[in-house]
Amino acid sequence: MGLFWKKPKNKTLTDGQERFADKIGMAITHRQTQIATYLNRKTQYWNRASKITALIIFCLVFGGASICLLLKAIL
What is the pTM of this model? Predict the structure, then answer.
């Protein structure tokens, strides 16, 4: 019955932990920017129809995979 338990109080981070968390955050942001730039260069010359087609294919593939996993977990 977790509804009636007291929530643990938030602990403050030490300076070392905050610096480490900042480094991780900056590394993730940097990597996301690199990937976004790469993908933008790859699709720079695609027209609107090609981008929409790629989006539809992406949604069908990963949506279908998600539905398969969901059904497999249920059944």
Answer: 0.60
Whole-number pLDDT of residue 1: 53
Residues with Cβ within 8 Å of residue 54, at least 6 apart in sequence: 43, 46
Q: Side chain identity at 66, as an amino acid letter?
A: S
Residues 6+ apart with CB under 8 A from 13: 21
Encoded tokens for 74: 């249920």
Distance CA 66, CA 63 (A): 5
Radius of gyration of the chain (CA): 21
> To 10 degrees, the CA torsion angle through 62, 66, 68, 69?
130
Q: How many CB atoms lie within 10 A of CB 25?
A: 10
